[in-house]
From TrEMBL:
Name assigned to this protein: (S)-2-hydroxy-acid oxidase
EC number(s) stated in the UniProt entry for this protein: 1.1.3.15
Main location: other
GO terms, biological process: defense response to bacterium; hydrogen peroxide biosynthetic process
Record Pfam families: FMN_dh (PF01070)
Superkingdom in the source lineage: Eukaryota
Organism: Carya illinoinensis
Compartments (UniProt record): Peroxisome
Main EC class the enzyme belongs to: oxidoreductase
Record key words, sorted: Flavoprotein, FMN, Oxidoreductase, Peroxisome
Reaction(s) catalysed (UniProt annotation): 2-hydroxyoctanoate + O2 = 2-oxooctanoate + H2O2; 2-hydroxyhexanoate + O2 = 2-oxohexanoate + H2O2; a (2S)-2-hydroxycarboxylate + O2 = a 2-oxocarboxylate + H2O2
Cofactor: FMN
Length: 303
């Protein structure tokens, strides 16, 4: 099941997606998740909005780590985050492009969600936002995130770091082509776990279009709804190099900390291994397009 992503070996094509605020799930937060990733020989992508700092996670284990970046209006703060990640041995930057504003999260509004202070921004950014009318997270995002983020900003990021840059949040062939043209190291097909815009497409339905558009020039990673080893298998059959898992990691962390995250990854690996064996695939390279039939193909076959 082993494979490589950006040249790094991982034990299976299953990586840990960036998700915010792991201490809401477990007191040890991202440090526990990082240890689980290391023990599982996979890569964790640390969120900018983590509850352990870049430095705490770096010192919690010796593993390949990527850093997910949100670009703030304050570019000096964004640059400081990038430099801290690089200095602390993060191996790639994953630029999330689907949060110019936070999506309308009605549960957060109804519950008047108040996000804990973001550890990575302590001493860098202190903004008080009025959350009486709803989600403090939404208000905070609006006050701080740079909604003008666009392609030229990738150039700026390149000028301040040597880390390879991946773009997370690609859903169309046009954006995939543009990303490959400007020479990023990879892309992640993602709709942010369907947390941003209702009616954005299910990622599995656009994966193949993106893979074709990129034509093997850069690796395509995939996330959204991966809950079983068979989901990993389907994504690989449609051309993804590896998948990221978001919620399952947080559920495992909440249930049993580091052990819970390891267990989630092991369950997915066991299921993937079985799906591969039962499909005649001795290695992930043997998983190909003929192993899946899309909904469109199923309907066409009935004509
Ligand atoms: C609670 C939660 C927090 C998230 N926080 C971030 C984040 O900080 N940065 C980011 O790029 N994506 C974030 N995401 C999106 C995930 O990286 C990923 O795209 C998504 O969760 C994948 O779908 P899945 O949860 O179905 O596996 C978050 C998702 C969840 C569920
Ligand atoms: C500035 C706070 C925004 C946090 C967004 C975290 C995230 O990506 C998510 O909850 O989804």
């Amino acid at each position: 099941m082993s494979t490589t992503v950006l040249g790094y070996n991982i034990s299976a094509p299953i990586m840990i997606a960036p998700t915010a605020l792991h201490k809401l799930a477990h007191p040890e937060g991202e440090a526990a998740t990082a240890r689980a990733a290391a023990a599982s020989k996979t890569i964790m992508i640390l969120s900018t909005t983590s509850s352990c700092t870049v430095e705490e996670v770096a010192s919690s284990c010796n593993a390949v780590r990527f850093f997910q970046l949100y670009v703030y209006k304050r570019r000096d703060i964004t640059a400081a985050l990038v430099h801290r990640a690089e200095k602390n041995g993060y191996n790639a930057l994953v630029l999330t492009v689907d949060v110019p504003r936070l999506g309308r999260r009605e549960a957060d509004i109804k519950n008047k969600m108040i996000a804990p202070r973001l550890k990575n921004l302590e001493g860098l950014l202190s903004i008080e936002v009025d959350s009486n009318s709803g989600s403090n997270l939404e208000a905070y995002a609006k006050a701080t995130m740079d909604a003008s983020l666009c392609w030229k900003d990738v150039e700026w990021l390149r000028s301040i770091t040597n880390m390879p840059i991946l773009i997370k949040g690609i859903l169309t062939r046009e954006d995939a082509i543009k990303a490959a043209e400007i020479g990023v190291a990879g892309i992640v097909v993602s709709n942010h776990g369907a947390r941003q815009l209702d009616y954005s497409p299910a990622t599995i339905t656009v994966l193949e279009e993106v893979v074709h558009a990129v034509g093997g020039k850069i690796p395509v990673l995939f996330d959204g709804g991966v809950r079983r080893g068979t989901d990993v298998f389907k994504a690989l059959a449609l051309g993804a190099q590896a998948v990221l898992i978001g919620r399952p990691v947080v559920f495992g962390l909440a249930a049993k900390g580091e052990h819970g995250v390891k267990r989630v990854i092991q369950m997915l690996k066991d299921e993937l291994e079985l799906a591969m064996a039962l499909s005649g695939c001795p290695s992930v390279k043997d998983i190909n397009r003929s192993h899946v039939r899309t909904e469109r193909e199923r309907l066409l076959s009935m004509l």
